[in-house]
Amino acid sequence: MNEIAKVENMSIAEIKSNVQVVQNVLKNVMLKGCHYDKIKGCGDKPVLLKPGAEKILATFMIGTEIKTEDLGDGYDHRYRITCRGFHIPTGNTIGYGVGEASTAEKKYAWREAVCQEEFDEIIESRRQEYWKKGYKNNSPQKILQVRQNPADLANTVLKMAKKRAMIDLCLTATACSDIFEQDLDEEHIRENVKPEAKQYQQPQAKPEENDETVISEAQARRLYAIAQNSQYEPGQIKTALEHKYGVPGGSSRALPWRLYERICQDIEQGKLDA
């Protein structure tokens, strides 16, 4: 009898036991902000992050085998990853997870134009004006965007597809979807977090080049969400903040406002270590 059949014929006691194991790992092993987190406006359940999925799979002795399908159209890169979970001691299949990612996704396809001149020089089909929601007391903003080179992001979307497949496997194979939300991408988080203030105010003036004013709590939360859903581990981001951008101690709480948007874009576009 293979592992899938065993799962299908599990008793109520065995199901309860598995749930208890996940809850114990969540309480005693996993760390909020590293393995899982709660995202305001995105439900009551914690969001399972990639390091957390790896911890749970290891707990149940589930290994992973990756199958990659290249679904690119000759311009955009698109990958579908099928992640087979198997019982490490026996090799028997436990279940499957599937994830896709593409350079045609909004957060990969477009970047903010460096300046008005760059926007004007790009052909019309490869530029757009995008309205960004204003949160808290900020007004909506119109952002000039240009199309990114898909080849620069091929590795980023491949890793993202793998991450999505692994988390899908973890949630389904260990039956912990009732404990965790599916891992949320940064764009989904921003679109579902509602502004707290009904009246908008004019945005603050852009800081001067030498302004060392640190970012706000809201900006720190957004940076955190971007980082959690990127290809980078927390240690890599901290090292880059300290050594590449000169942020004291690599702490986001010490990040100057003037560097904020640049760092967010570098993390989203996989250019942190460039």
How does this model look, in words?
With 274 residues, the protein is of the alpha+beta class. It has two domains: 3-104 and 154-188, no CATH class; 204-274. Helix content is 38%, strand content 18%. It contains ten helices and eight strands. Strands 3-4-5 form a three-stranded antiparallel beta sheet. A three-stranded antiparallel beta sheet has the order 6-8-7. The protein has a two-stranded antiparallel ribbon with strand order 1-2. Strand 7 (127-132) and strand 8 (141-147) form a beta hairpin. Helix 8 (217-228) runs parallel beside helix 10 (257-268). It is globular. The protein starts with a helix and ends in a 6-residue tail after the last helix. Residues 1-8 and 186-205 have low confidence and may be disordered.
Distinctive features:
single chain, 274 residues, alpha+beta, 2 domains, three-stranded antiparallel sheet, 38% helix, disordered N terminus
